[in-house]
């Protein structure tokens, strides 16, 4: 993917660029739902989740560059579930896969530090390369977490516009005195939506860490089924460094590979096409072929 060729060697953004260059933007979810465990002939237990996760890792390695374990499906089994997750995380990272832990953590800065240190400290039992994070207490409350991630060559993906319909009322609410308001008093969206303000704040953080390279360490989560225009989000606005995007909503939720450029505009080069259920339903025997086919489909759509 030629758009991703620059920026290699700079923190998490450089790692991400390398994976995009080698494999394209497909991100394979590791979601051991009960119905999938049953379909795969596995027990609904920590042992079943472990086996499921390891099989997905094996199928994704060499075919995709990024996997995203959904932490909740392991966490529900308590300490045994976390032990299973540790093995899946370690296996994925040992095979050269970028691992995004989909845990959606969020808290005041002191408590959040504990979460971030657990997930993003090199050598931690639950070490991942990036973590999804919830900004409900304000993006400013994430600042120390963002600094920690950037300092350790790790990434964060901040929830900004999620694809669940219940989110629209909150994420479409207006924020007075947002970064976008301060940037341009002539902006017709002088009071930006919550979603847009989060994007502005994350982009501003990345701009303040320009030494990280041309791709930011901190990205945002933008669901592929979201009406971005209704949220006042301009997908063709410039971000320097480039803004990574984790984009769920592909496959089972309805978005397709051919939608990527239309939906994400200028953000396309660093948009991760996240797909879970529609791939995982191929089963353990068909998963590798399904990943191969979808990865090629996504790459072809971006040529």
TrEMBL record:
Broad enzyme group: lyase
Entry EC no(s): 4.1.1.23
CDD domains named among the record's database cross-references: OMP_decarboxylase_like
SMART domains referenced in this protein's UniProt entry, alphabetically: OMPdecase
Domain Orotidine 5'-phosphate decarboxylase positions: 25-291
Catalytic reaction(s) noted: orotidine 5'-phosphate + H(+) = UMP + CO2
Chain coiled-coil ranges: none
InterPro entries for the chain: Aldolase_TIM, OMPdecase_type-2, OMPdeCOase_dom, RibuloseP-bd_barrel
A Pfam family the protein falls into: OMPdecase
The keyword Kinase is annotated on this UniProt entry: no
Alphabetically ordered keywords of this record: Decarboxylase, Lyase, Pyrimidine biosynthesis
Pathway where it operates: Pyrimidine metabolism; UMP biosynthesis via de novo pathway; UMP from orotate: step 2/2
Entry's family note: Belongs to the OMP decarboxylase family. Type 2 subfamily.
Protein name: Orotidine-5'-phosphate decarboxylase
Species of provenance: Gryllotalpicola kribbensis
Gene assigned in the entry: pyrF
């Amino acid at each position: 993917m030629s758009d991703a060729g620059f920026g290699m060697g700079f923190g998490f953004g450089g790692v991400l660029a390398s994976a995009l260059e080698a494999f394209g933007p497909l991100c394979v979810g590791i979601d051991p739902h009960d119905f999938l465990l049953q379909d795969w002939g596995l027990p609904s237990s920590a042992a079943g989740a472990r086996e499921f996760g390891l099989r997905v890792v094996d199928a994704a390695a060499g075919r995709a560059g990024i996997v995203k374990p959904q932490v909740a499906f392991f966490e529900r089994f308590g300490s045994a579930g976390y032990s299973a997750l540790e093995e899946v995380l370690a296996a994925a990272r040992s095979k050269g896969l970028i691992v995004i832990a989909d845990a959606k953590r969020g808290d005041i800065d002191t408590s959040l530090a504990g979460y971030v240190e657990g997930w993003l400290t090199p050598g931690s039992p639950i070490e991942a390369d990036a973590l999804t994070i919830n900004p409900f207490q304000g993006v400013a409350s994430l600042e120390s977490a963002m600094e920690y991630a950037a300092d350790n060559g790790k990434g964060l993906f901040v929830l900004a516009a999620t694809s669940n319909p219940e989110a629209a009322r909150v994420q479409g609410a207006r924020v007075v005195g947002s970064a976008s308001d301060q940037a341009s008093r002539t902006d017709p969206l002088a009071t930006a939506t919550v979603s847009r303000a989060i994007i502005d704040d994350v982009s501003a953080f990345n701009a303040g860490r320009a030494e990280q390279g041309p791709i930011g360490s901190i990205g945002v989560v933008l669901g592929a089924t979201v009406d971005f225009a209704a949220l006042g989000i301009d997908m063709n606005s410039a971000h320097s460094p480039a803004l990574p995007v984790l984009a769920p909503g592909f496959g089972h939720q309805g978005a397709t590979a051919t939608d990527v450029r239309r939906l994400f505009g200028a953000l396309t080069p660093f948009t991760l096409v996240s797909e879970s259920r529609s791939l995982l339903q191929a089963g353990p025997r068909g998963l590798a072929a399904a990943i191969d086919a979808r990865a090629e489909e996504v790459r072809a759509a971006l040529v």
